[in-house]
Specification:
alpha+beta; 5-stranded mixed beta sheet; 16 helices; 53% helix
């Protein structure tokens, strides 16, 4: 199990408020998806500023699934892309506001996109007279159409807001089939819009790169660059922490050691470990269950006796292990072992 991907908390908050204000997401839908506005942002005294907090990517995906399931406003992604909300700018968005021109802002955006959403990718290609921007998402995340529309439209909207000059694409292609509201794309992307392409991309005049950003401030840019660098390092270190915790759990299970031993080996207090794992979108309990699940599957398939596996994984008795195994794999350890023997 890989560490959970996290995204900017402000990105989740912005989409949450937008869908709720537009009547796309009801309070019931949001709560059913595990989204509670009151706890999205950590307001405790030791928490990071809201602009630097992280939330599990699954929460962002849950919001986009709600948006995609709405049939009354299917163009919600286009509407979201045209919305500019300075109050929900995170570290990256704030840094972009102080770049000297669009070309620099695009480079910063590409390099620091993990601060916003590590699953989103942007590539640029510059020729003599045009700029090509191509977007993609991590293939295992399955972002729905509204999310793609929003990201494409937001780039156009942000360039216009930052420079004060409209930046309508000269051509735009989407990799998904033409939606029934296709005529509404012209207001955002111009008239040269096509669907069903190999990639999702837009073409802009090359001169766009040289357009100055109205709010540029070199002093604030320097400060925000350092904050962005620190934030990227923190994302990397939190991922390393999850791997270290998993390793410590795996090494201590058969000795019956728990979280206190893990904390001692990492030189962390319990509250600090809980807080840092929460920022990564997971918890000690979830990591413990994940490690046990992986080891249980492996050891049962290797033919180890059930009682030995139960002891190896630190269960108090075999019956408790049996219940956990059935919950994980919807079958008994014996059934999995029989399947393994039957495999060629």
């Amino acid at each position: 199990m890989r560490p959970r991907t996290t995204v900017s908390a402000m990105a989740v908050l912005d989409l949450y408020d937008f869908l709720r204000d537009q009547g796309i997401a009801t309070d019931g839908q949001l709560l059913e998806a595990g989204l509670n506005r009151a706890v999205l942002i950590d307001g405790s005294s030791e928490a990071l500023p809201p602009q630097e907090q992280r939330l599990p990517e699954e929460q962002l995906l849950a919001l986009w699934r709600i948006a995609a399931s709405n049939t009354e406003v299917p163009q919600i992604g286009l509407l979201a892309g045209q919305t500019y909300n300075p109050s929900t700018r995170g570290v990256l968005a704030s840094l972009l506001c102080h770049c000297s021109n669009v070309g620099e802002a695009l480079q910063v955006f590409q390099h620091h996109i993990a601060l916003m959403n590590p699953s989103e990718r942007w590539e640029t290609s510059v020729s003599d007279d045009s700029l090509m921007l191509t977007i993609s998402f991590a293939p295992d995340k399955d972002y729905p159409r509204p999310a793609i529309e929003r990201s494409m439209g937001a780039l156009v909207t942000w360039m216009a807001e930052l420079t004060g000059i409209s930046a309508a694409p000269t051509a735009c292609t989407f990799a998904f089939p033409r939606p029934r509201y296709h005529w509404q794309y012209a207001a955002v992307f111009g008239k040269a819009v096509s669907f069903g392409g190999d990639v999702t991309c837009m073409r802009l005049p090359r001169v766009v790169l040289d357009r100055p950003i109205r709010t540029a401030n070199s002093y604030l840019k320097t400060i925000l660059q350092e904050r962005a660098h620190q934030a990227l390092q923190k994302i990397e270190s939190e991922s390393l922490l999850v791997n270290k915790v998993r390793q410590r759990i795996g090494a201590s299970l058969d000795r019956g050691l728990g979280i206190d031993e893990v904390c001692r080996s990492l030189h962390l207090s319990r509250p600090t470990l809980y807080r840092r794992l929460k920022r990564e979108g997971t918890s000690y309990r979830e990591l413990l269950a994940a490690v046990r699940k992986e080891l249980a599957y492996r050891q049962i398939r290797q033919g180890q006796p059930v009682a030995c596996v139960s002891d190896n994984l630190g269960f108090k008795d075999v019956s408790t292990f049996h219940r956990a195994f059935r919950r994980w794999f919807k079958q008994s350890p014996g059934a999995l072992r029989a399947q393994t023997r039957a495999m060629p």
